[in-house]
């Protein structure tokens, strides 16, 4: 599920590489991994409501990029690779089977001395079709609220957000919620602790220690501000450590911190 920069460099022409950017103007167009296709994160969202793109739009977006259902896709992204993990989670829900994440993203790619390109790949549109959707790794607010006392809750935000000192991280300081704090009983495991200084994910043994207090017997719910950082925690638990019952609350604090009357801790 994670590929190294060395492996990708040796297999550039054998896979479809996608750079997922929240802000492509300051990332993709300043230099990207050779052959990488730009996928704007916002293109994976619904046009009118706060939700993900419906299957028809999702299919159209991937088809427009020349992606086929059986392509082996390698993802990396801006903002610490967080949108690569989020896109991985979403593409799995929409049934794409062969996906991996570039371990360490473009930061590691550059650190290892590999070249970047300013050339925009030519794309041949194809007919991508979502055939099956599986939302079992997602939980919505009306499902979560009755379970607050029984699920294992993990808050993947930084300590200041968790403690209610701030309502948004520095990179999204303009996107505030009405109140600060965290969901009752949630444990704070900031997503950044999952990674080494070079951006790669820590070893399985190190991740086991980080999550040693998290029960494998309970349903686990992870959240952050909008779901991006929490998707990396979901990935570590589900795909690396093989926890079976892990769900992402993508509504996260942007939704929860704006609800009237829900319990909050600081």
Q: Describe it for me?
A:
The protein has 266 residues and is α/β, with parallel strands linked by helices. It has 2 domains: 2-111, Oxidized Rhodanese, domain 1 (3-Layer(aba) Sandwich); 141-256, 3-Layer(aba) Sandwich (Oxidized Rhodanese, domain 1), CATH 3.40.250.10. The protein has 9 helices and 9 strands. The protein has helices spanning 5-10, 55-64, 82-93, 105-111, 141-144, 159-162, 204-210, 228-240, 252-256; strands at 2-3, 16-21, 37-40, 73-77, 99-102, 152-155, 187-188, 220-223, 246-248. Strands 1-5-4-2-3 form a 5-stranded parallel beta sheet. A 4-stranded parallel beta sheet has the order 7-6-8-9, with helices on one face. Helix 6 (159-162) links the parallel strand 6 and strand 7. Residues 11-118, 147-265 form the Rhodanese domain.
User: CATH topology of the largest domain, anyone?
Assistant: Oxidized Rhodanese, domain 1
Mean pLDDT: 95
Shape: globular
> What is the correct CATH architecture of the largest domain?
3-Layer(aba) Sandwich
- The percentage helix is 25-40%
Strands side by side in the biggest sheet? 1-5-4-2-3
Query: What would CATH call the class of the largest domain?
Result: Alpha Beta
Radius of gyration: 18 Å
The largest pleated sheet is described as:
5 strands, parallel
CATH superfamily of the largest domain: Rhodanese-like domain
Pfam families: Rhodanese (PF00581)
Organism: Sulfurisphaera javensis
Protein name: Sulfurtransferase
Keywords: Repeat, Transferase
């Amino acid at each position: 599920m994670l590929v190294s920069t060395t492996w990708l460099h040796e297999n550039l022409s054998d896979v479809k590489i996608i750079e997922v950017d929240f802000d492509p103007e300051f990332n993709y167009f300043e230099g990207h991994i050779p052959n990488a296709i730009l996928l704007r994160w916002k293109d994976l969202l619904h046009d009118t409501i706060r939700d993900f793109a419906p299957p028809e739009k999702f299919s159209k977006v991937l088809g427009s990029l020349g992606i086929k259902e059986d392509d082996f896709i390698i993802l990396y992204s801006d903002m610490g690779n967080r949108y690569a993990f989020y896109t991985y989670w979403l593409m799995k829900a929409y049934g794409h089977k062969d996906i991996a994440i570039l371990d360490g993203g473009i930061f590691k790619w550059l650190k290892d001395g590999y070249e970047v390109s300013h050339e925009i790949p030519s794309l041949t549109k194809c007919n991508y079709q979502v055939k099956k959707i599986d939302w079992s790794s997602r939980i919505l607010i009306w499902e979560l609220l009755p379970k607050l006392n029984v699920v294992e809750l993990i808050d993947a935000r930084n300590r200041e957000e968790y403690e209610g000192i701030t309502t948004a991280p520095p990179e999204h300081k303009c996107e505030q919620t009405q109140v600060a704090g965290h969901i009752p009983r949630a444990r704070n495991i900031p997503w950044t602790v999952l990674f080494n200084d070079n951006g790669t994910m820590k070893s399985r043994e190190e991740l086991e220690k980080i999550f040693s207090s998290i029960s494998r017997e309970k349903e686990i719910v992870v959240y952050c501000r909008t779901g991006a950082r929490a998707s990396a925690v979901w990935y570590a638990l589900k795909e690396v450590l093989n926890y079976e019952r892990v769900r992402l609350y993508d509504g996260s604090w942007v939704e929860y911190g704006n609800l009237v009357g829900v319990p909050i801790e600081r």
